[in-house]
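User: We ran a pulldown and think these components assemble together. Before we commit to crystallization trials, I'd like a predicted model of the whole complex to look at. Sequences follow.
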Amino acid sequence: MSQIESIQPTTQQWTTICPLDRILPNTGVCALINGQQIAVFRVGEGTDVYAIENYDPFSKAYVLSRGILGDRNGIPKVASPIYKQNFSLLTGECLDDSTVKLRTFSAQVVDGQVQVKV
Amino acid sequence: MAKRLVTIGNGMVGHRFLEQMAAKGADWELICFCEEPRVAYDRVNLSGYFAGKTAEDLSLVAPDFYKDNNIQVHIGDKAVSIDRVNKTVTSAKGVTISYDKLVLATGSYPFVPPIKGNDLSGTFVYRTICDLEATEAYAKDCKVGVVVGGGLLGLECANALQNLGLKTHVVEFMPRLMPVQVDDAGGATLRQKIEDLGIGIHTGKSTTEIVADEHGRVSKMLFADGTELATDTIVFSAGIRPQDELARQSGLKIGDRGGIAIDDNCQTSDPDIYAIGECALYNNQIFGLVAPGYRMAEVAADRLCGSENNNFTGADMSTKLKLLGIDVASFGDAFGKTAGSKVIAIDDAVAGTYKKLVVNEDGTRLLGGILVGDATVYGTLLQLMQNQMALPPHPEDLILPPRSGASMAMGVEQLPDTAQICSCNNVTKGQICTAIQEQELRDVGSVKSCTNAGTGCGGCVPLVTDLLKSELKKAGIAVNNNLCEHFAFSRQELYSLVRSQDIHSFQQLLDRHGTGRGCEICKPAVGSILASAWNDQILDAPHVGLQDTNDSFLANIQRDGTYSVIPRIPGGEITPEKLIVLGQVAKDFGLYTKITGAQRIDLLGARVDQLPLIWQRLVAAGFESGHAYGKALRTVKSCVGSTWCRFGVQDSVSLAIEVELRYRGLRAPHKFKSAVSGCTRECAEAQSKDFGIIATEKGWNLYVCGNGGMKPQHAQLLAADLDKETLIRYVDRFLMFYIRTANRLERTATWFNKLEGGMEYLQDVIINDSLGIAAELEAEMAHQVATYACEWDVTLKDPIKLQRFQHFVNTDVPDPNIVLIEERGQKRPVFEHERQLSQL
Ligand code: SRM
Ligand SMILES: Cc1cc2nc3c(=O)[nH]c(=O)nc-3n(C[C@H](O)[C@H](O)[C@H](O)COP(=O)(O)OP(=O)(O)OC[C@H]3O[C@@H](n4cnc5c(N)ncnc54)[C@H](O)[C@@H]3O)c2cc1C
Ligand code: SF4
Ligand code: FES
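Assistant: Here's a predicted model for the assembly, 958 residues in total across the polymer chains.
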């Protein structure tokens, strides 16, 4: 589906998307960065944040930020809100169809602000 | 140095063969010629291309598979000659490669009947993605399309043309459709069903000429009987012919009617050359299905890796398909050609089904059959036939609706280990059971990934599931009721834990009784339990992450990520003023409007950022959330009753409104629905509802546990001639008892069917209070009723909650992916193929 594009690591930079409290614990939001839709999730009550593509390849809609968070055997994941396929937040891999993989991005919280590296 | 194996053809079978070779890790240098401009894809699901699948979606080749396995594939390069003396292959691009062994997997090509005009502009075939691209591009300017050939592929192709928006006709030379698979009676049933879909069927028509217009494009077809048919485009689907051109040129043995002759080893007349898939002829038969080709791929791979134990011995040509949504199955000796065989057939013109069994002379064994219109028993029949199992004393019962409720379903336990469960991937019962035992498989997903069963057409998944259950039961592993990997409790158990330990959040419950972080199964289930127990607002911070997207945005998500808005219209009664508001709001926001199947109005196509603006207007006009998104009360339908109707004996509208307002917002294990009818004519269809009320001269009859939807079931009478107070009390108790005891996503009908003691038991609990919980149940309901608040109203007043209704957190722009187009004067989301057009 989605393959790693050849973005040079040197051109990547951190973008601040919102304050941490805009993301309620255990939910996600979607950010628009350089024209790309990126789903950013906050796992737990703290500063544990993950970013993957917002595109759901199964429904072809940009909706993953609205999925339910959770884990499968300890791997943090999100379930697509449309047809419920699960994606690992660590690797972007679809846990129900190993041929599908989404891009992931680094995410962090600095001074109460959520940042994503694109 | 490794020996070199050259494969010609990278279709479904050629690719499967290379996968097998890679998996066996044999010491071969693998090279493949691939004529098409792309590597192997799922031709079986080719028609999915018109339903929005892309070439990428259809691909069968995992990314980097060829690279990782050192397989060299010459994409877009056709092999044009074989030199068997020097053992080389030469390609169209001029590459010459020597081989030690050669595998031909060249498939077949569509047969185009020799009719004058068959090469005009506007004629196509249906075999490759390139064919489909060409057809689609041409069809843009067409209104009418004809498929020549009423076989399996022809009908599939007709469906595709119809999806492209063409008025579609099928022209078949033989007197009936699907002449190879079904008989005259089956063909007639099938024809009726397809005509009902608006497709024109012309059987017994022999085309004599295709006539061009002044630009040399197809304009009409002339038939031998003097009739004609105007059309803009023609797709030939009149059968396939084995692609044996290369083999012919190089002098390999070919069948009289084509096909590269092979033996049990899949070897051709030249022992260094193998042939597999649709190009191969075994026992004078070619196989136009993928499963036999996969078997050949296995056999050839085994041979080339030095194993002798696997032979090709022919294959079963049974087929089951869903064509245009119509079940058709044909298996074994479908035409009763076996000497002495007898036929049992049921041609039900009312139901539109045709079912035929062919049995042996003494009626003890099944030889074959045909099913049209309903093929639910196909799996059972196929197993009975393949395993030569004894038929029951009245074999007709197999195709009759069950008498006296007895189920004819055959237990999987009775099947022998050799029974083939998955025909797509040739997996037997024995293999599945061994995998379950040895690898300790516990769910269907792992059985699928470990055995491959169920990963093709999916038709065998119900059997696989039954096998898993029976194996687990045999092994003494309680088929547990655990909600999911995070909670070793059933929904009922969690519900009583929440109540008895006064638990108010998912985290509390997880900390005390669960593990991990939860998932899309336990979170909504617990969210629903908490709502049923305490009625806190579902969008409150600790609960919002538990909700399915529908609940979490208080609207139903649609296929493009937009939402629908369904306000509550209690009892279906609505004033003209409110109708005008709905119309005005729909107009202002460009929403698609539709009357739903449940007496209310749906406004579709709202973006997430528009939802609060829309609801602002609706709430101001006195509307409330309709909970169309929740596992909660949906509607209480009503008929006009005594207010207007000359037969009405009670005021059904007033009661319906009262009942709807009482239970609105109540969350339950699944959605539930109700209706009130003003007399026994039952215009509100109360007996198809989770609880239904029908007026009598003396009061109200209460029916419970009915269901429409997937498996309709009539509701049963719980109590008769009730006054209103008693009626409401019984409904309170009934609903709360259901909420306490049902499984996740179990509607009242399913719940009831598992309830030991049936209706008598339920009456005992609800009417006679045999469990002594009636007062508790009523109190719980009273709390629910008292704490109800419209979720939209609450949300609109809370700026923190509203923050979430925005597509992007860092900008106000809406989701650019949402594209709507107009149809019949309203907007709807584009389909994938239209999206590309609209972006041109
Ligand atoms: C909109 C509507 C179709 C329409 O245009 O008429 C509809 C739309 C959906 N129905 Fe329905 N059903 C609609 C009336 C019905 C009815 C008729 C009725 O209620 O009288 C039935 C059969 C009656 C019954 O439920 O027993 C019905 C039986 C189902 C079922 C099968 C339930 C079952 O037990 O078999 C599902 C699937 C499910 O709930 O799991 C379903 C699920 C759905 C879902 C939620 C599917 C989904 O997940 O997207 C659809 C939501 C669309 C949306 O966003 O609005 N819908 N659905 C109807 C909304 C009624 C309303 O005003 O709330
Ligand atoms: C629309 C449609 C629906 C179908 N539905 C079903 C179904 O429901 N169930 C079912 O079992 N089967 C179905 N089939 C049949 C199924 O697709 C075939 O049985 C299967 O694809 C056969 O695989 P194969 O590899 O033998 O042939 P193919 O998949 O046709 O592959 C052969 C490949 O070899 C290439 N080739 C040919 N000659 C050369 C050459 N000289 N050099 C290089 N390459 C060459 C061809 O271009 C082609 O790509 C369907 C087919 C179609 C078209
Ligand atoms: S029947 Fe109901 S669920 Fe199915 S498509 Fe129609 S609206 Fe959707
Ligand atoms: S029979 Fe098709 S997947 Fe098993």
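Residues B 422-424, 453-460 surround FE2/S2 (inorganic) cluster (ligand 4) (CB under 6 Å). That may be worth checking against your pulldown data before setting up trials.

User: Thanks, that helps.
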